[in-house]
Amino acid sequence: MGRARPPERVPAVSALVVTRAAEAAAAVNVQRMTAYGLLVSPSHNRVYAQAAAGLVKAELAVFSERALGGRVRDIEETEIGGVPYVTFSADDLTEQDIRLLSNLSSLYALFQMEGDLLRPVVLKPLDLFGSDLLTIQKYSGKTNEYFTKLLLNVTAMAADSPMDLVTGRPRVLDPMCGRGTTLNQAVMYGLDAAGMDIDGKDFDAYAAFIKTWLKNNRVKHRAEVANVRREKSVVGRRLHVTLGASKERYKGGETMEITVVHADSLEAGRFFRPASFDLIVTDAPYGVQHGSRPKGGRPSGKGKPQLSRSPVELLAAAVPEWARLLRPGGAIGISWNTFVGRREDIAEILASSGLQVQGSDAYRGFRHRVDQAISRDLITAQKPPA
Ligand SMILES: C[S@@+](CC[C@H](N)C(=O)[O-])C[C@H]1O[C@@H](n2cnc3c(N)ncnc32)[C@H](O)[C@@H]1O
To answer: Where does the record place the Ribosomal RNA large subunit methyltransferase K/L-like methyltransferase domain (predicted)?
Structure first.
């Protein structure tokens, strides 16, 4: 807003064949369209870097369709000065539109393109903390942090009020949160986050990480781990953290909450209230690194349910439970390994729980290779508004 417009491009139409009115309309159109170049983040992970431009293109298409009234057009991958960019054109973007676009997962910098020149657009990302909150943890089975952000973003876009991502405070649940990639991204955005994981080691590792990170970064907080009891027996452990983005905000009660439960996600309803989340976001087990553990599976090893190769079985059991925790109008986003589950099967599971799958083309551009055994895709669905 308030930025000087690029010089008008001359419409490549013959004045002879266009009426004055059409000419005027075309001129207005040309004047209002601005070309943008988005510099894609140089990713540390070579495999993800290869997919990043394609993924940000798909993400931009979803942002445009769901939150920007389809005003972003001509989304293309291109090279400028030997560096990969995604270019697009858009009608005058408002400050709020730029605030939204500032959070695109693989966006490093954004420019208005004026001929050969690139004019930087001042970004206003939601980020409250340093990026090490997302990057410092390294472990096998970690969901790439750019992809985690993308999944949270496109799930937010699938809800009934997509702009809430930047204007509201959607409450986020990752019901299979591992060591907390989604939770950390939600906190980065200033949102309340909740998670569950069946793996006690992941729960302990996340509790240790977040407490240390908050302490090392002098973030004002309180953290406690306690047993959760139902009818006198312990049904799980819960980590509860209250933190403030600054000392002043913390003192003024402007806080964020992180709640993580060590328990089976199929029991989510025992720990969280119905309709208490705006967004449910999860990277399902790939059937490779982490096994899916369907309810009632035969115990194996140290009393854990037997591992199944397909996450589909697990999702079929868990999605009805998760759907109850979603508020009407809220959205769920799931990523999964397409080698072990078909999109149609997961769409069917979501639909059987009364959720409306986002089926537009914009939502079909996310499939990408992770490694030899994993080709990842994502699917989102909305709980119909009440
Ligand atoms: C792909 S990993 C998620 C990784 C996570 N995003 C991260 O980066 O740490 C899938 C997770 O699902 C968890 N999981 C599998 N079955 C579960 C169940 N029934 N209840 C809760 N968590 C489960 C696994 O323990 C694993 O941490």
So the answer is: 171-294
